[in-house]
């Protein structure tokens, strides 16, 4: 490299001839694993380069060091100059351009270069070989060098692109990067005969993603990350379109294992382990669940007893059933974050997390650690889940993740949070990031299923009205529209809700945490339940074809259904949601006293005048039913009514002598109904807010019926309750049903535009029936 008098960088002729190839490879801002191996193997083989040039070529082919904006622009400008100088009758190849640019550079190069003739057939042949290999990888990128990008290549309508951009927000770039990576041949999905083969494949995939620095995105800069949880969540969501074993193992390694070190450890743990977790140099597990204790984390039995003389914790599994169960990465992991009851100086301080080495550098188990494979599962067989037992395993005091509780050399315990309950919930609360991400991957699977079912419904025909008329398209049957369009609308609503939740999480303050935990528990539950239901319906909508492995539903169904259980069982989480809503309500009353009571009474009176008067409860005109005002009012009414009645019931029960626990059991189903109403209302508000932020009328036209269909199908689903409450009269209930049918027909006309706006590329949908 030389600096010219005009202070411009001038690369040697040898490097100059490679610039078109590097530009092509990096044009989509990502070097896929195959591009890396091609460039690296070939660069060494380019006999005409000097050693320095070979070194530079190797640097430019490192996936974790993309060219900065300055270098990339320099490549582009050099390339454009080369194109301007081309006077051949055909369009130049990258080799043509490279050779031309090398010749130009040779004229200006200040010094010797070991090539006299750049048209030497041996040089041409080497460059052409490299070009052919790179070009075959990503034709779109290659074309875009010469032509303006064309929407015809993918056949996606402009409205879909606009909507996709609107939904992606600032994360379109990272999603695109991951999609490009996943288009590389190394990410080819196939059916694996054994769990071992599948797990080996998933491990290789994770390594490829770690090399691209995808795993460490949420970690601090000094640990190799970008401090960007938003990007991490977008990567995780995108992996959900491809292979859920990959998404889950990725989440276990970087989100649970690394995430626990990040959230529960302090600087010393970050320095020692976080970088290694992010690069996968240190594969690890998150070992919380035990055979006897899953949802009840406080009941865990594994012990961590402090031995002050040795300055060590002794990690021990007291009974066979206290063994850690279902632990992801148990077979590939070398270290585990183990949750155990901390005892120091004879006092139990509750559950804390410890870093416990499991295997040595040769991958042999360390003394005192026993691991068993959980074996084949209903799905996710690419993830190595196992059971782990510890027999008096000693770890240094340093290995306690001590952000919320520490033990001094002599065994004295200290914590910034005095109350043990508060400490426990704060500790678990810091892990809420997983609960924010998991439903996004689950929803990706549902969006894939809906896209496949819609596309199939638009090509498959069955039955015709007469012998001379063509058979009817499946999606033209009102029943088919009724089955799929509400799912499509709800997928949009949840997508927008989950992205808003991610945003709230990213910009959280200490005071927001309680509400964010409540929202994360609720949205995780509702989105993953939805995914399970939607995928089943979409499979059925594709008939027997949906049952073939190649059409994706087998894996989508099998791999997502456990999303309703891990990261917290949904039914248990929904009770947390109800408790969160109740305590926010009680807090308001405690803080505001009589003012709050007056406000609620006023609200109730107002509702009975404006929403529950005989005119409104019978109102059936379209304008009213499709108005966001009616829809939001109805959702808010349901939540409020369930909340008041629940809090009153609980108060009366406690007054009559029930313990708080017994009163909670008595009202358990009421609590679940409140939690659902809370999430549904929050999602509708998020959707409404997003639509209001749209500047483009075309976007509003697309999303308004989506909102109405989400809202009215939900009201229709609870119509028994609304009728009981006399919030609607039978005539209005019927009108809502009819309007849902009409909205289904309206969305059927927009189904392709809407499903394309999910932005799932064909290579990820990868179902022959969805071509
Ligand atoms: C594939 C997979 C991967 C996993 N990976 C990990 C991992 O990496 N690390 C880890 O620590 N754990 C992991 N787990 C464990 C997972 O987190 C637990 O399965 C989950 O927390 C539920 O616990 P459980 O299975 O013991 O169910 P239980 O808690 O026994 O629940 C069983 C049923 O009882 C119901 N129930 C329980 N309590 C109540 C209540 N109070 N009120 C009403 N109903 C109730 C639940 O709704 C559920 O239907 C994984 C599990 C699976 C299946």
Question: How would you concisely characterize the structure shown here?
Answer:
The protein is an alpha+beta fold. It contains 29 helices and 15 strands.
Provide structural commentary.
The chain is α+β, with helices and mostly antiparallel strands. Helices cover 57% and strands 9% of the residues. Residues 2-7 and 148-153 have low confidence and may be disordered. Bound molecules: flavin-adenine dinucleotide (FAD). Flavin-adenine dinucleotide (FAD) binds at residues 252, 286-289, 294-295, 326-328, 377, 380, 385, 562, 565-566, 569, 571-572.
The main sheet comes to: 6 strands, mixed
Share of helix among residues? 55-70%
- In terms of DSSP E residues, the strand content is 5-15%
Indicate the radius of gyration in whole angstroms.
Answer: 30 Å
Q: What's the overall average pLDDT, rounded?
A: 92
Catalogue the ligands: flavin-adenine dinucleotide
Q: How far apart are the termini?
A: 48 Å
The structural class is alpha+beta
Q: How many helical elements?
A: 29
Tell me the total number of β-strands: 15
Principal-axes geometry comes out as globular
Weakly predicted, low-confidence segments:
2-7, 148-153
Topology:
Layout: E1 2-3, E2 9-10, H1 13-26, H2 33-45, H3 51-60, H4 69-85, H5 94-108, H6 121-135, H7 139-144, H8 158-168, H9 172-182, H10 195-211, H11 229-239, H12 244-264, H13 267-279, E3 284-287, E4 303-307, E5 312-316, E6 324-328, E7 335-344, E8 347-357, E9 369-373, E10 385-390, E11 393-396, E12 406-407, E13 413-414, H14 420-429, H15 432-457, E14 461-462, E15 472-473, H16 478-506, H17 513-541, H18 553-560, H19 570-592, H20 594-610, H21 614-617, H22 622-625, H23 628-655, H24 660-666, H25 668-692, H26 697-717, H27 719-724, H28 730-756, H29 762-765
Parallel strand pairs: 3-7, 4-7
Antiparallel strand pairs: 1-2, 4-5, 5-11, 6-10, 7-8, 9-10, 12-13, 14-15
The protein binds flavin-adenine dinucleotide (FAD).
Residues 252, 286-289, 294-295, 326-328, 377, 380, 385, 562, 565-566, 569, 571-572 line the site of flavin-adenine dinucleotide.
